[in-house]
Amino acid sequence: MPSSEGTSKKLNCFTCQRRERNEWCVLSDEELKMLDRGRVTKEYMPGEVIFHEGDACRGVYCLEVGLVGVRKSNADGNSILLHLNNPGDTMGYRALLAGEEYRASGEALEPSRVCLIDAATVRTLLTHNPALGLRYLTRVSQNLGSAEEKILHNATFSVRARFAHLLTVLVDRYAESKDESPVEFELPLSRHDLASMIGTTPESMSRTIAKMEQDGIATFSGRRVSIPLLETLVQEFEPEHFI
Amino acid sequence: MPSSEGTSKKLNCFTCQRRERNEWCVLSDEELKMLDRGRVTKEYMPGEVIFHEGDACRGVYCLEVGLVGVRKSNADGNSILLHLNNPGDTMGYRALLAGEEYRASGEALEPSRVCLIDAATVRTLLTHNPALGLRYLTRVSQNLGSAEEKILHNATFSVRARFAHLLTVLVDRYAESKDESPVEFELPLSRHDLASMIGTTPESMSRTIAKMEQDGIATFSGRRVSIPLLETLVQEFEPEHFI
DNA sequence: CGGCACGTTGATCAATGTCAAGCAGTGTGG
DNA sequence: CCACACTGCTTGACATTGATCAACGTGCCG
Predict the structure, then answer these.
(1) What is the pLDDT of residues B22-70, one digit of tens each?
(2) Is the entire prediction scored with pTM above 0.85?
(3) Same domain, A136 and A67
(4) Has residue B120 been placed in a domain?
(5) Quick one: pLDDT band at residue A240, thresholds 50, 70, 90?
(6) Which domain holds residue A214?
(7) At CB < 8 A and 24+ separation, what contacts does B26-31 make?
(8) How many CB pairs under 8 A join A and B?
(9) Does A98 share its domain with A41?
(10) Do B198 and B141 share a structural domain?
(11) Which residues of B touch A237 (CB under 8 A)?
(12) Mind listing the pLDDT tens digit for each residue in B77-91?
């Protein structure tokens, strides 16, 4: 699904629709010009790696079209899927801002178009426009909050509760409407990737799904999900022990 | 152990020894004056809460003396210990920078002296001195890296491996010297808190400790630990499967 | 003394990982 | 077109981990 909107012969940061949704929205025209000069756009097919854990930071990646998964793995070959990035999202900024190497890998999960903004350019923009830094400061601080939330979540919830939670997040992001019942939508992930998002195995994932179907929480057919009542799903991880 | 060094009759940000070790080191004299005006110092006994999860952010806390644990808990009453803060460390900046409420609580684990820098003051300093913002940007980005590391770590390692890892971290921070064998030092935490740092129960903690003693990894007597060989401890979480 | 927090230990059980097999769908080469 | 391999998913059997519940010892403090 390349270039659904961009029949634009010349793609650039000025005409980029996504810009309103990310940090670059604070840039002046002058700075946008600089951003555009520091940009290299590339297309990736599913499975292709955009940046790799351990690599020196090349800059900030800006997703224009597609879906990108951010993975992190340890020495034993285990890995987890930390984030899903949608069009408009930026990636790789953590490494740049921390002055480190990438500590996770970015991999296209759908055909994607990604712009790389050169590290030197981003650094120049950061010193040039303090508002950009503050913007990132807010963003990274919120990310840190979410990450710490996730640590607690993983430590104290069961696989089933974590999956229920993940499902509601996916509904929020990928379902057309979450107001009608049943809510139906297409999972953007394989079973394996679903499992690695909640830190479990594909086998446990499969069993959890089967059990939740039995309990009438949701029905699964391939990647198609139907949830009769969102409320029941939410109760899986929000115990309403108000007696 | 109050005021081990500060027989200074008048405690302030200029004479504060800790300042060199945190973000405030980038401030000018003028700005330091502002910092000092926005400061309120308070002492806490073990168990006392310094800031509380869910509270509106009052500012940034600066630990001068003592030890503070940062806890996060969920609706069911489970909780984990996210960080340990030592003199010179600052706390609560995540909430301020994200523009959120505190999402964790700070609790004195030892008698502590803590300065609170008023939120408005910090915000003024941030807009006034971009270097401070960049400093925090680096800091928070590194924290985010550690948090994501921890997510992977918790998801893929056993309780024993996680505890071994925690022990090496504690050795780094609290042992006099880690070059002599055996390494000996005093744990700054109760069994319960050790457990909540790696997301397990005190019972499992106890058993893990017992088993590691049997295996000759370390000996425990109350809070006193002795580690014959650091290398063997490290191997508990760094499998050297180079065959 | 009695109560209480802390730590340990035992017994038990549920949750989850591991290993192995099988099945459906898909593409490939003969 | 078929045989084959391959991948993703599911299922079963089993082992292991770790949580839970309960009991008990120890030291501390009123």
Answers:
(1) 899 999 999 999 999 999 999 999 999 999 999 999 999 999 999 999 9
(2) yes
(3) yes
(4) yes
(5) low
(6) 157-235
(7) B26/B129, B26/B131, B26/B132, B26/B135, B27/B125, B27/B129, B27/B132, B28/B129, B31/B125, B31/B128, B31/B129
(8) 138
(9) yes
(10) no
(11) none
(12) 899 999 999 999 999
Residue B53 belongs to domain with CATH number: 2.60.120.10
Closest-lying nucleotide for B210 based on CA to C1': C8
Name every chain A residue with its beta carbon within 8 A of the beta carbon of B152.
72-74, 78-80
- Positions 169-208 in A, CB within 7 angstroms of strand D: 190-192, 202-203, 205-207
Statement to judge: residues A130 and A162 lie in one domain? no
Final residue before a domain boundary, out of B118, B136, B155: B155
* A204 C-beta less than 7 Å away from strand C: yes
Is residue A240, in this structure, part of any structural domain at all? no
Kindly state whether residue B46 falls inside one of the protein's structural domains.
yes
First to last CA, chain A: 51
Domain boundary among B155, B186, B212: B155
Residues of A in contact with B142 (CB under 8 A): 98, 100
For residues B107 and B126, membership in a common domain is answered with: yes
User: B88 CA to chain A: closest CA distance, Å?
Assistant: 20
8 Å CB contact of B98 and A155: no
> Which nucleotide across the nucleic acid strands is nearest to A192, CA versus C1'?
D8
Domain identity same for B97 and B137 = yes
Measure the CA–CA gap between B64 and B27, rounded to whole angstroms: 18
Q: Is B10 part of any domain?
A: no
**Interface residue A61 vs chain B (CB under 8 A):** no
Q: What 3-state class would DSSP assign to B114?
A: strand
| pLDDT tens track for A104-149 | 999 999 999 999 999 999 999 999 999 999 999 999 999 999 999 9
List of chain A residues whose C-beta atoms are within 8 Å of the C-beta of residue B239: 75-76
- Smallest CA–CA distance, residue B205 to chain A, in Å, is 15
| A80:B153 CB<8 A | no
Statement: residue B228 has pLDDT above 80: yes
Single-letter amino acid code for the residue at A225:
V
Q: Is A70 on the interface with B (CB under 8 A)?
A: no
User: Quick one: A135 and A225 in the same domain?
Assistant: no
Taking alpha carbons only, the member of A12, A114, A6, A123 closest to residue A57 is A123
The pLDDT assigned to B240 comes to 64
Report in angstroms the alpha-carbon separations of B90 from A100, A123, B3, B22, B114.
22, 26, 18, 7, 9
In B157-201, which residue ranges form alpha helices assigned H by DSSP?
A: 159-174, 191-197
Measured between CA atoms, the residue of chain A closest to residue B80 is A152
Angle subtended at Cα B186 by Cα B180 and Cα B192, rounded to the nearest 5 degrees: 135
Q: Which amino acid is at A6?
A: G
A158: CB within 7 A of chain C nucleic strand: yes
Q: Is A78 on the interface with B (CB under 8 A)?
A: yes
Q: Is A151 on the interface with B (CB under 8 A)?
A: yes
One domain for residues B182 and B149 = no
Number of domains comprising chain A: 2
CATH of the domain at A185: 1.10.10.10
